[in-house]
Amino acid sequence: MEPLMIVGILLLTAGFILVGIEMVLPGFSVPGVSGIICLIAGIFLLADSVMEAAVITIAVLALLGILLAVILWLLSRGKLHSPLILKDEQKKKEGYLSSSDLQYLLGRRGQAATDLRPSGVGSFDDVKFDVVSEGNYISAGSPIEIIRVEGSKLVVRERISDDRSANL
Description:
By secondary structure, the chain is an alpha+beta fold. Helix content is 43%, strand content 18%. It has four helices and five strands; from the N terminus they run αααβββββα. It has helices at 3-24, 30-46, 50-77, 162-167, and strands spanning 109-112, 119-124, 127-133, 143-150, 153-158. Strands 1-2-3-5-4 form a five-stranded mixed barrel. The chain is rod-shaped. The protein starts with a helix and ends with a helix.
């Protein structure tokens, strides 16, 4: 075997390994760029003609497709660790809340942080939530009260303060 052929095969092997690393740890970074450069250099060293280079390129692309399919299969089965998949669970006892846990806000009184037309932001005990009014316009700074919780949607109405209700 010629030395150039051995170097070409080594470059192709290194290229496949580096591109495989890039598939597991995505981002256009050093392994991916280095792998592409190794693959291209390996094709140039192995090919004696343009036609042979085209055939080798098609074979390399087919092998990259197979490599991608195998890596995706391994990732989906949990046999490979991926930094993209969150393994930690967000449990309620650790302080995490889901959108279905907003029932505790029912009846809470606060203030419209923005104009509600009908949606906007309400502030309840210095915590801001996206809220929706019953359909009425409510200006910023008006007192509001949460009257319904529909999934992750907080429905509010303007609260009539005690001194205003005495005048009615």
